[in-house]
Amino acid sequence: MIIAAGFVANLTGGSILQSGAFEMFMDDTLIFSKLQQNKMLSAVDLAEIVIQALVHAPA
């Protein structure tokens, strides 16, 4: 039974990693999705997205 649970967990984890999903949320709001943009941004671009989200966040 333990081996079966480990096998299922391994399959599930592998499928999550293979999807290439990378999403950033701020207060339950999606601020970036690699799946929607169909590309991965640089660290500088991602930082800019976070800064802009913080600037425009309600006080």
Sum up the structure in keywords.
15% strand, single chain, alpha+beta, flat
Description:
With 59 residues, the protein is an alpha+beta fold. It has a domain at 21-59. Helices cover 58% and strands 15% of the residues. Strands 1-2 form a two-stranded antiparallel sheet. Strand 1 and strand 2 (29-33) form a beta hairpin. The mean pLDDT is 78.
Provide a short characterization of the protein structure.
The chain has 59 residues and is of the alpha+beta class.
Poorly predicted runs: none
Task: Indicate the structural class.
Answer: alpha+beta
**Helix count, DSSP H or I runs of 4 or more residues:** 3
DSSP helix fraction: 55-70%
Report the principal-axis shape: flat
Query: Strand order across the biggest sheet?
Result: 1-2
- Average residue pLDDT: 78
* Radius of gyration of CA atoms, rounded to a whole number: 16 Å
Query: What's the SSE pattern?
Result: HEEHH
Largest sheet: 2 strands, antiparallel
CA-CA gap between termini? 51 Å
**How many β-strand runs?**
2
Strand content: 15-25%
